[in-house]
Amino acid sequence: MNEASKSRPYRDWLIAFFATLMCVACILWNIEAPTRLGFAILKQQYMAFQLGLALTIAYLRYNGRGETKDRVGWLDCAIALIAFAVLMYAAYDFSWLLKEQAYRPWQITVIGAVVTIAVMEGVRRRAGWMLFGIVGVFLIYALFADKVPGDLIGKALTPVRLVQYVGFDPSAVFSTPLAVGTIIVLLFVFFGQLLFAAGGGTFFTDLAMAATGRARGGSAKISVVGSALFGSISGSAVSNVVTTGVVTIPLMKRGGYSGRDAGAIEAVASTGGQLTPPIMGAAAFLMAELLDISYLTVAAAALIPAILYYVSVFIQVDLIAGRDHISQSDEEALSVKEVMREGWHFCLPFGVLLGALFWWRFDPEDSALLASIAIVLVGFLRGYRGERLTLKSLGNVFTETGTSMVDLILVVASAGFVIGILNITGLGFALTLLLVNSIGANVTLLLLVSGLICTVLGMGMPTSGVYLLLAALVAPSLVEAGIEPIAAHMFILYFGMMSMITPPVALAAFAAATITKEGPLMTGLTAMRIGWAAYIIPFVFVATPALLFNGTWGEVALATALAGIGVAAICAGMVGFIQSKLTMPVRLLLGALGALSLPLGFIPQDHFLHIPAAAGAVVLTAGLLISDKRKGRQAAA
Question: What are this entry's molecular-function GO terms (predicted)?
C-alpha cells in the first residue's frame, strides 16, 4: 500500500470530523447554547469559526482543478493549516480585534491577507474562473479606483488596507451573506439531506410518477413535477439535473421525446426549483435579509410567478406529446394512494416546516431545526421502500451537509468582498448613477439592459453567488428607477437563474446534455425555447405587482388569470398543436392574442384591452377544440 493510500483514511476522517463540527456548531448557535451557558459570543466569531472549517475542508479535499483528490499535497496541507489556525484565532479574539481595528494592528493584516487569498483560490477551484474573475476585477478596481476615469472614479485603497477591510471587516467578508449561509442555509441543507437519507428523494420521484406517469407525455411530466419538488429543496440546478435526470431523461427518451427535448425539459424543470417556494434554495433567505422583510413575504411574492413558469413548461410537454404521438410512461408506477400509504409520514416534517414558517411565523432557521427533528423522529420509526434513517446514515448526513456547504460558504464569502468594495470605494452608488443616467427614464430599456447584464454575469456561477452579486450591482439601479424593491430583486433572481439554460455557459443544460449525449449548445437553445416564459414573466410582475401579491385580492386574481391565459396561448402557438396541428396563421394569431393578454404595463395600450385579448384567445382555443372533436367524430363515422 503506497503512502497516499495509507494517509487517505486519516484525511477522510479529518474532513468528516470538521464537516460534522460545522453542523453541530450551527445547531448549537441556533438553539443559543453559548448564551444559555453564560458565554457572550459575537456572530462574527461564529462566522470566522465556520469559514475556517470550510476553508480547511476545501484544501484537504480538492486539488487545483477543483476535483476530489486522493492525497493532500504539502502546499494544500500548509494552506489548510494556516487558514485553520488564523481563523480559529480570529474566532477566539474577534472582540479585541474589533476594538483595535481603528489602529490597524498587524494581526488584522495577517487575518485579512490569509482570508482573501484562501477564499479567492478556493472560489477558483470550486466555483470556477467566472466568479473568480469578477471578484478579482473588483479587488483590482479597489487598488486603482482613484485613477478610473469618468463617473466610476472612487476612493482607492492600499494593498494592506484592502486586505484588512475585505478579509476582516463586518461590512465585508463577515457580513450578511456569510451569516445567512452559515446560520440559515446550512440548516436547510441539513433538513434536505435528512429527508433524502430517510427515503424522501425516492418518495418524491414515486409521487411524481404516480401523479403524472399515466397521462399523455407522462415521462416528461414526471420530470417537471419531480424536479420542481426536488429542486426547491436541493438549491442547485445542476445537482438537481444530475440527481433526477438520470431517472427522468432515459424515461423521456424511451417514451418518445427526442434526446434534445428530454435534456432541455429536465434542465428547465430543475432550474425552476430555485424559483419555487417554500425553500427556493438559499436565495429566498438572502433576499429576506437584504430587503429586511419577512421570509413569508418573499415566498408569497415568488408563488404566482413560479406557478406560471411551471404551467408554461407543463403545457408545452403535454402539447409536444400530443403533436409527436407520445403516450404515457412505460414505467410501472405505483398509484398515488399506494405511494402515500407507504410515505405519508414525509408529510409530517413538511407540515412542521410550513406551519413554523407561515403559521407560527418562526425564524427560518428555527423552522428548519424543528422540521429536521420531525424527520429524525419519523425517519427512525418508518422507512420508505427499504430506505430508513439509521445511526450510521444520520452520521453520514452530518458529514454530507458539512462538505456540501463548503462551496456555498466560499461563494458567499467572496460576495462579501464585492459588497465591501462597493461600500468603501463608493462604487455601488456610482454604478447605480451611471446605469440610470445612461438609459434615462425609459424603464423598459433599463429592464432589458439589466436582464442582459444579469444573464451574462450569472453564467457559470452558483445560485447564491449569482443573486448576491446582482443584488449589489444591478438591483439598486432598478429601485432607483422607481421599481418596487422586492420586484427588482425577484427580477434579477429570475434572469440570474436563466443563465443556467442560456448558452454559451448554460450549466444546467450542459449537465443534461452529458446524460442525453446530445450537443450541449443545441440542448441549451432548446431549453431557452421551452423555458421562454422565464424571460417574460419578470417583465410582467414588474409591470403588474399584483402578481407578487402586492394589491387587492381582485387585482391579484385578474392579473393571474390574464397572465395564465396569455402563457397558455403563447405555448400553444409555439408548439403548433392543440388537438391537432395548427396552421401558421392560427399559431401567429394565438401568439399575438397571448402576448396582448399578458398584463404588461409597458405596452402602450389601455389596460382593459388585455381582457378582450384574453377572451379572444380563450374563444379561439375553444373553437379549435370543438372543431377538432367534430372532425374526429366525422372520421370515426
Answer: transmembrane transporter activity
